[in-house]
Amino acid sequence: MSWCRMWRRALPPKLVQGRPGGGGQCVGARRPRELPPDRGGEARGWSKPSFDKTLAINSMQAWPDARAGLREIWRVLKHGGIVVLGFTVNSGQPKVGVVESLAAAGFAQAQIVDRSKLFCAIAAKP
Known about the structure:
By secondary structure, the chain is an alpha+beta fold. 21% of the residues lie in helices and 26% in strands.
């Protein structure tokens, strides 16, 4: 099952964009450009909540500071916004602690969606 399809199934229907013919759609994402260490989202013009949804796949375990990364996602998400963190078996990311990390960053309704070779953590900004 693709990440896109798993994400659509895991989210409540009202949070997935609709399209003619039913179902939701996933919008392709570009590879993010790395910012210099002294700059953050505000340097890009994200001084206020700007995003409805965020998706990161196989990356959280490589962030220099996962707590700071989750706080930054919380900062730029609009109220009611959704964060999805996806991990394959190759990521090396354990399931234990991911929900707790999301809760510590201020997210609500954090849950794990588990499949045989992948899992994702989904949470909302209250």
